[in-house]
Sequence to fold (444 residues):
Amino acid sequence: MFYDMASLAGCLLAALLGRALFGGVDLDLYFWILGLLLCLGPCLNAAFGLYRTGRMPAHRELQAIFSSASLLYGTILFMLFITKSADVYSRAALSLGWMLTLCVVPLTRRACRRRFCLRRWWGEPVIIFDQSASGKHIWHYLRQHPELELRPTALFGLSGGQEKVRPRLEALVSRYPDAVALVWSSPLKGADADYVSDICRCFGKVLVINSVEELLRRQWFTPYELGNMTALLVQQNLRSRWRKCLKRALDLCIAVPLSLLLLPPGLLLILLIRIDSRGPAIFSHRRLGRNGRPIAVLKFRTMAVDGDAILNAYFAEHPEARAEWEKDRKLRRDPRVTRIGAFLRRTSLDELPQLLNVLAGSMSLVGPRPIVDEEISRYGDAYPDYCRVAPGITGLWQISGRSNTTYAERVELDRYYVCNWSVWLDLWILAKTPPAVLSRDGAY
Fold:
């Protein structure tokens, strides 16, 4: 919360100082706005779930920050309107403060997590009620991911009957009064339901994981009240026509200006490719797009034109490399790659021509990595999910280590993206792409 308050105040002050450079700003007029930001800002953040138990997914956190900041500055503008004092305040400074808040708050929250997540006091203590393999798996997973803000403290088994369990629960509550209870349970019937009821009476916060999680492990769901029953709502945004139009509009709003901006360096790369090796600078590769239809994906050429012959000769000399190729259809030292091609691959600049695919509608800025026919069998039952969207220039796989991940992990990342797509997820992936490219993590 302190980092959020400092970010809100700092963004407004930076905007005011920037506007003051051009004159005509009385900083004394903005003290009440600064006070309102510091008082109302944390309250709105809490209302949008930014201080809830455990960390929300990054793209949902981005959505919550946008909603909170927009409502906060909207409240300020509304107060200026009803007091008829808007003319003496700088609209440019307030607009800049809002935009800075949207950029700075996610960065400061990330910096806070990276700095403090390994401290003993970080996160909320969690008591896991299950001593089976599942409970131990959760214990180790939370230990390995302190950024989730849940700190496993004790592992407790539910056995021996309620008469023996209840005294132990009371002892645990006395020892860990602020702990979060996490229950791994099979379908909540009979004894399991009774145990959960007892735990809910003892602890203020209870997380319940049951067998339905296995069915929906790739999808986000929210509680939905049906009278005296609770259902789980799974929302498939890609089934909504207007949301698909929104995704297309986002592609065009970013791809059009980006294409114009990158046109001069693109022409320079074409010249360098032609100088480095013979053959065309841009080539098209047959891939599978939305609904499994073939598309021609454009790329800067990074390999020699006689690449197949070079690869076969390389396998003849290095038979151990064939196993690496069969595993992920990638080689860490690919003999077909040219000198300029190696640079283009490390920096992902070879994919710049795919902006033309985005403009044509055969690809999207964000989506699954485009695949070839031979990869359909490797996608298995995830292939229908792949076919639901246009493949993307970037995606979850590209920001998750790329070639450092296994093919099975890549498939699961693509499926997760399709099942949980939102505009905010796209924006988060786009924001993560430049750092992933610059770090060259998994690029070869």
